[in-house]
Amino acid sequence: MKKQRHIRTRLLLTLIGLTCAILLSVMLVFNIAVRSYIRSRVSTQLDEVTQSIFEGRRRDEPAPRANEEGMRFDDRPDRMTGAECSAAVLQADGSLVAVLQGDRFVAQALADYVQSEGLPVGTQSKVISLDNATYTISIMEDTKEEGHQLLIYADVTSITNFTRQVNVILLIIVLAAVLICVLLSHSFARSFAEPVQKLSDFAADIGGGKLEQRAVDFRDTELRQLAESMNRMVEELQQAKQKQETFFQNVSHELRTPLTSIHGNAEGIVYSVIEPQAAARVILSESDKLGGMVEDILYLSRMGKGRQEGEAEPIDLREVLSLCVSEQHAEANKKGLNFAFDFDDDPVLLPIREQDAQRLFGNLISNAVRYAVKTIRLYCRCSDGKVTVRVADDGPGVAPEDLPYVFERFYKGKDGKHGIGLAIAQSVAETWHGTLRVWNDGGAVFEAAFPFA
User: Fold this and answer.
1) Buried b (16+ CB within 10 A) or exposed e, 340-365
2) What does pLDDT average to over the chain?
């Protein structure tokens, strides 16, 4: 399990780490570059002085300064590093013989260092520190006088001091940057963590059942969008909760009516106040109504979970409609209704579960039988890349105030049953990527349309 940290701590560590890494990298690169540059410039300067000595020195006798002997080497300091080169002659064991250029005390100290350390001939651009000063030295054989060595050195104290000062400044900058990072991270984390905490508390309230929208005005677009999405979720949950409450209220009411009837007739049989045969017929009828209602509720619940399209098989909708008509034929005959068919000559195939298709069109035809006066018209054709089925009756049509709600669960219009049939029909249509709509045209017209692949 990953170690958990507060957002403020993570931001602080990230900003400090990034700032320190950048500044320390700058310091490292600066020091490497300065050292390389000094070594390059001073080495070049030492080489030039050495060449000048070899070309122009006449040493009849030692002299404190090279220019007094008429030698031709440049004793001006380097313009970039400020280093001034000096030279001295050493014995083979490192002891000082003569100073050709520079301070004798410095030359003596360097000669003692060479002698004590046993630095060999051929040492090039070695950096040493003596008496709070820094020098770069080169030792080579004196080709004009056997048994002697030339010590060429340059004082680079100023440039090394400059480097140290820059390093101190960079360290101060690092510390200042760390302090700034602490302040910025604290401010930034607070501005970010507080909205997140508010959203977290909002989500906790939603999880606890407190469905109340909250006014939010975050500066960050993403957080504002998240808050708006949570408010929309609250609104949808409120609607779902209201529908659930209405659902249970309606179910209780719809179930109570047949149960009351069954209980009353059964009680009449027990106390011999109702003729048993008549009471039994009522009990049987109400039991059938109750069983059908429960079956519709269970079917509607299963449809709400969706189905895999792999269960579908292409079926001819003309045959499904004909089967549904035959199931309603007895009821239609009682009312003296006729069916008018407008079907394609060719099979109208649609990939759908046959049970779902029967539920969909059976409910539409049953609804038409309930309200039709003389004729029910059935339309089933495939055109324009879709399959269209219409069920129309010549009854009074759907009341304008009922049109927006006819597909809601347990919504009952005039002379309606328990308000589940049309909800099932719409659920089936949507499950199979279709649409179901209704309008009035000399009666109610229900149209189911499905895309044809």
Assistant:
1) eeebeeeebebbbbeebbbbbbbbbb
2) 79
For residue 394, what is the enclosing H or E element?
Answer: none
pLDDT band at 281 (very low <50, low <70, confident <90, very high): confident
Q: Give the alpha-carbon dihedral of 249, 252, 254, 256, to 10 degrees.
A: -140
Cβ atoms of residues 438 and 398 within 8 Å:
yes
Q: Which helix (DSSP H) or strand (DSSP E) does residue 99 occupy?
A: strand 96-101
Residue 422 in tokens: 């049309």
Q: What angle do CA 248, 401, 243 make, to 5 degrees?
A: 20
CB 8 within 8 A of CB 15: no
CA distances from 72 to 137, 176, 271 (A): 20, 52, 145
Question: What is the spatial distance between Cα 321 and Cα 389, in angstroms, rounded to a whole number?
Answer: 9
- The values of phi and psi at residue 340, to 5°, are -115, 130
What average pLDDT does range 5-31 have in this prediction?
Answer: 77
117: its two tokens: 């350390």
Helix (H) or strand (E) holding 118: none
Closest by CA to 381, choosing from 442, 441, 321, 312, is 321
Domains of the chain by range and CATH?
7-164 (3.30.450), 221-304 (1.10.287.130), 309-451 (3.30.565.10)
Extended strands (E) in 116-260: 126-130, 133-141, 148-155
Q: Which positions ≥6 away from 439 have C-beta within 8 Å? A: 403, 445
Which run of H or of E encompasses 369? helix 354-371
> Residue length, the chain?
453
The more confident residue out of 301 and 447 is: 447
- Cα–Cα distances (Å) from 410 to 4, 171, 297, 300, in that order, read 50, 76, 10, 12
Query: In degrees to the nearest 10, what's the CA dihedral of 197, 203, 208, 214?
Result: 90
Tokens found for residue 259: 């149960």
